[in-house]
Inverse folding.
């Protein structure tokens, strides 16, 4: 099967050459901005605006990183983002997996309605919710807290949807056998179902963590001090206003620092990505 | 383990067993089901369902953060539709959707088809295209804000190299929105690509081989085999692209703050400005409801269209 695929792809030398030319162009267009960000972040001040632009710095230096951490509460923002990201991911995984189990494998009144309502929220522009959410949290004094950044974002329809697909694929015989051996429903869920669907859990974890790490609008509203501010909101204050005078090397250093955790997380788990999406059933 | 989770045979077997059991609902199952669902439902009701209803309610009220809420009917809607800034925001956001929707779908599919081939290096290129996905919007804005700089940006440097006059991009009301669109495509086309990739890898190779034996060329195979089988993925990608287009905010906020001359001022920025800088919750909620209605209309129209094709 795999070999036949290669036949289709590279039938003619001309076709293959064209594909490679396109791949080089795509790599350049998508890779260059990221590379430029890395290169600029290690340039000394004298080289930042050199003309023509240099892709390899003559005198690489880490002074921009030093300036960044000295002048801005980067560590605090970074820690906040990490705490929020990890808590949100754990909470979402737990809540979504628990909900997906009955939706995937049990027959009960209300199931269809609940599925329909959950999946309808796919189409909901969340920005609609921010005014009432802010007012609600504000009346309980919960604005500008880790709570407001984690719990309200954890009822994630995408995670339920994806895990439902994964859970449905586990053969019923396994569950029957487990029950026969005296396994409770939760025991089956915890000891058999979850270990069997690790790729699905990994996919939800990646999407949730990256979404949380990069979430911008809600933290912009729900935080108002550096104590709780997350990286995206903190970094946005570097540009505009006071940040205009910032050296590009410092800005690019901030970009590198902000991207590093998600890039590592993604590169480590990326093989689950396509597999996870392939299992959602949107493939038709 | 992996094959178990994705293997179609396993799934259909599970479905069959599931259907058989349908008639004989065991006692206690309903209780168990709702116990498992309860944490999700609690969060869902508190932070999704109630806020949605509240947003609609607030849109009919006068509600400043301090005063007592008061029912005022459609006044908030009258107010925002009489506000030139809101109309500008709708127009701008529509322009953004127009600029991004087709390239995001077409390019997403093209990239997926290019990188679905069994050639050396596709895995690497896929990773490169996917990398912007993990970059946060503030960083995207900071990075592209500089790339689009008139004097020192790389974009103009390379455009000049091929003989094109430098463009002021983010400082020019005619070019600011196209610049945001380019940035957004670079940043998010990978999500569409990955959905198409998953769908492409599911098309049985035999179909293409049989068609080739029958004398179908590459273009015919694309039109008569690939495209029809991609329809569900196409519907999903189109819907997500359009909805996300209407929700655009971060890029505009970081790169242009809505300017120059309000040329990149979008609906969500209107909500932000009205609610959290002017503290007028009623009109802000009304603008949110309008955003919901717009995305609903677009989703429904798109579903009708996909069915018709």
């Amino acid at each position: 099967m795999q070999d036949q695929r290669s036949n289709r792809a590279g039938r003619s030398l001309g076709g293959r050459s064209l594909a490679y030319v396109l791949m080089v162009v795509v790599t350049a267009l998508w890779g260059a901005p990221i590379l430029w960000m890395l290169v600029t972040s290690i340039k000394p001040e004298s080289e930042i605006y050199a003309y023509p632009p240099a892709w390899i710095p003559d005198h690489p230096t880490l002074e921009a990183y030093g300036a960044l951490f000295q002048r801005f509460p980067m560590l605090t923002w970074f820690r906040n983002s990490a705490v929020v990201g990890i808590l949100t991911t754990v909470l979402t995984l737990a809540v979504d997996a628990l909900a997906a189990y009955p939706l995937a494998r049990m027959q009960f009144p209300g199931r269809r309605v609940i599925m329909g309502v959950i999946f309808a929220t796919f189409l909901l522009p969340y920005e609609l919710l921010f005014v009432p959410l802010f007012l609600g949290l504000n009346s309980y004094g919960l604005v500008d807290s880790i709570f407001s950044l984690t719990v309200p974002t954890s009822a994630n329809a995408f995670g339920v949807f994806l895990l439902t697909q994964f859970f449905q694929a586990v053969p019923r015989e396994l569950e029957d056998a487990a029950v026969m051996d005296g396994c409770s429903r939760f025991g089956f869920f915890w000891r058999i179902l979850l270990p069997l669907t690790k790729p699905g859990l990994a996919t939800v974890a990646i999407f949730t963590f990256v979404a949380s790490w990069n979430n911008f609008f809600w933290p912009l509203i729900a935080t108002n001090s550096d104590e709780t501010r997350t990286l995206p909101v903190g970094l946005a204050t570097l540009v505009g206003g006071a940040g205009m005078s910032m050296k590009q090397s410092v800005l690019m250093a901030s970009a590198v620092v902000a991207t590093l955790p998600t890039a590592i997380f993604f590169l480590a788990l990326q093989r689950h990505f396509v597999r996870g999406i392939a299992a959602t059933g949107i493939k038709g | 383990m992996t094959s178990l989770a994705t293997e179609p045979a396993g799934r259909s077997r599970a479905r069959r067993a599931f259907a058989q059991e349908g008639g004989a609902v065991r006692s206690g199952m309903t209780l168990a089901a709702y116990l498992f669902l309860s944490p999700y439902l609690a969060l869902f009701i508190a932070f999704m369902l109630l806020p949605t209803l509240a947003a609609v309610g607030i849109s009919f009220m006068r509600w400043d953060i301090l005063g007592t809420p008061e029912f005022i009917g459609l006044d908030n809607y009258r107010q925002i539709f009489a506000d030139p800034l809101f109309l500008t925001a709708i127009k701008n956001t529509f322009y953004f959707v127009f600029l991004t929707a087709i390239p995001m779908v077409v390019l997403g599919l093209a990239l997926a088809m290019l990188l679905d081939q069994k050639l050396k290096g596709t895995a690497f290129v896929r990773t490169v295209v996917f990398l912007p996905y993990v970059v946060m919007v503030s960083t995207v804005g900071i990075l592209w804000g500089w790339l689009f700089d008139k004097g020192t940006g790389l974009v103009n440097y390379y455009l000049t190299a091929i003989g094109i006059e430098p463009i002021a991009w983010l400082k020019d009301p005619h070019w600011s929105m196209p610049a945001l669109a380019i940035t957004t495509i670079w940043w998010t086309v990978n999500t569409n690509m990955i959905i198409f990739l998953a769908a492409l890898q599911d098309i049985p190779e035999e179909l293409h081989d049989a068609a080739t034996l029958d004398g179908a060329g590459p273009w015919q195979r694309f039109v008569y085999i690939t495209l029809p089988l991609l329809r569900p993925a196409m519907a999903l990608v189109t819907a997500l692209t359009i909805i996300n287009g209407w929700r655009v905010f971060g890029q505009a906020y970081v790169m242009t703050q809505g300017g120059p001359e309000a040329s990149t001022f979008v609906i969500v920025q209107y909500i932000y400005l009205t609610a959290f800088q002017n503290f007028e919750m009623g009109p802000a909620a009304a603008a949110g409801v309008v955003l919901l209605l717009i995305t609903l209309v677009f989703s429904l129209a798109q579903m009708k269209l996909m069915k018709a094709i």
